[in-house]
Amino acid sequence: MNTPARTEARHRVVIVGSGFGGLFAAKALRRADVDVLVVDRTSHHLFQPLLYQVATGILSEGEIAPATRMVLKKQSNASVMLGDVTDIDLAGRSITLTHQGRTTTTEYDSLIVSAGARQSYFGNDHFAEHAPGMKTIDDALELRGRILGAFERAELSTAAEERARLLTFVVVGAGPTGVEMAGQIAELAHRTLVGAYRNIDTRDARIVLLDAASTVLPPFGDRLGSTAAEGLEKIGVEVRLGAAVTDVDADGVTIKDGRGETVRIESACKVWSAGVEASPLARQLAEQSGAELDRAGRIAVREDLTVPGHREVFVIGDMMARDRLPGVAQVAIQGGRYAAQQIAADARPRASAPDRLPFRYRDKGSMATISRFNAVVKVGGVELAGLLAWILWLAVHVVYVVGFRSRLSTLMSWTWTFLGSWRGQLTVTDQQVLARNVLGKLVLLDRCEGCSPIRAVQTISSEHANLLTSRKRRSSS
Length: 477
Prior knowledge:
Blueprint: E1 11-16, H1 20-28, E2 34-40, H2 51-55, H3 61-64, H4 68-71, E3 78-82, E4 84-89, E5 94-99, E6 102-107, E7 110-113, E8 117-119, H5 137-156, H6 160-166, E9 168-172, H7 176-192, E10 206-211, H8 222-234, E11 237-241, E12 244-249, E13 252-256, E14 262-266, E15 269-272, E16 276-278, H9 281-289, E17 299-300, E18 306-307, E19 310-315, E20 320-321, H10 329-347, E21 366-371, E22 374-379, E23 382-386, H11 387-400, H12 404-419, H13 430-447, H14 453-458, H15 465-476
Parallel strand pairs: 1-2, 1-7, 2-3, 7-19, 9-10, 9-15, 10-11, 17-20
Antiparallel strand pairs: 4-5, 5-6, 8-16, 12-13, 13-14, 18-19, 21-22, 22-23
Helix pairs in contact: 1-10, 5-6, 5-13
């Protein structure tokens, strides 16, 4: 186990997570008399709201995920450490992280936990094998491979029933991510790919958006929700509300509709965007501080975004529960900046800790795209839909893309996509589609100590059996 040396003369701030909350907190501390350490399991800052555009070939992963080290390169008081935080010790003021078998423990004077959230399958985690969520770059690249792979397989198919299954795309969850994903799959099929195949017409693709709720985009209100649903239907998306998913397998989705009837939708490509749950670190913090957790696993924080009894520990973004704030980027950004201000004040020499004003969130609105030139926006009591809303969406997202070059390349990619029909990021590989499940099963195989190779291989899908058996033989030799 490694324990990095620290400089006692400086106040050390450890930030867990390099998403919106963590990165904006680190940047807000650039002039403070502190040392900042950003810890994350990935080496990049992810602009998560645009992941669906990576999945549908509009943007490259580099345009929405700059390297965290490069973003903070010129900030002399900031450093980056790669690792998965496995333990937070509030009493000892330290965190423990692991990376490729190496365990490291580091101490802190102030801690900001912004580890975000992961996809929730509401207790049905086995759905993930056939319906990936969209929380990481790996997720987006896998979905791109699955979407485009379905068209490729349909091109080879000679059976009408199989072709129909391959050309049916199901998106579960009618929140902003689901709406945007369904809309872009529709545009991909009905516009971008038209004429690219010889044996199929991509306009025959069926795109189904499912949700157990009674409206699309519930936080936007009934009027904008209805407008969004109508916009989706105009571009060929089948919207099915009041539909609860009861099963997902390799060949389709089973739902229970509003009348209680069971319906089967045959589909090769499924996308899950129906729910989220907070990082498991929230439970650790709750157990040590006595704080409560909500149904999504988020930790209830005090009015200054700290956990009970620990003025030095802030929880921000998707991990925190406070005043029913939504899990959106602006909550994380404003929370990160607020936490940085309090830490900078605490780090200044003074006789006693300064009083803190409560965190106040400024709602800058919600927005979602439906298709090119069409979006919905809600800012306070103002509701917009159509072209004006789409332009506003465009402007806001460009502003928050990190780095001038990324903004420029994003604008160029959008110009080609929205004014023409070209998408420059349609390259896929089999590895992108298979890697997540294969890696997961390799881990299970490695953990199966004492199991015979035959029994272990029986626990994995047949298409990967040869790969895992050969790996086991190599390790034995």
